[in-house]
Design a protein that fits this description.
Layout (H helix, E strand, L loop, with lengths): L1 H12 L7 H6 L2 H8 L10 H9 L11
Length: about 70
Amino acid sequence: MEPRRRVLLVLKEKGLLDYNFYTASLKTEPQFIKILIEPFKENVPGLLEFYQKSKGCSNVDNAISR
């Protein structure tokens, strides 16, 4: 759940979204990506990679600058 929390914090810090963590935690992986990552990929380049890195799924070196 920590990677999802990190994504929500990034979106909140950028003023793009204020989403309830509990609701986000109930989403399946495809739902989470479709609802909380895909719509913001232009506003937050690298968001999916950041999420994957947070999950330990990728060797991406770039974190999202805040």
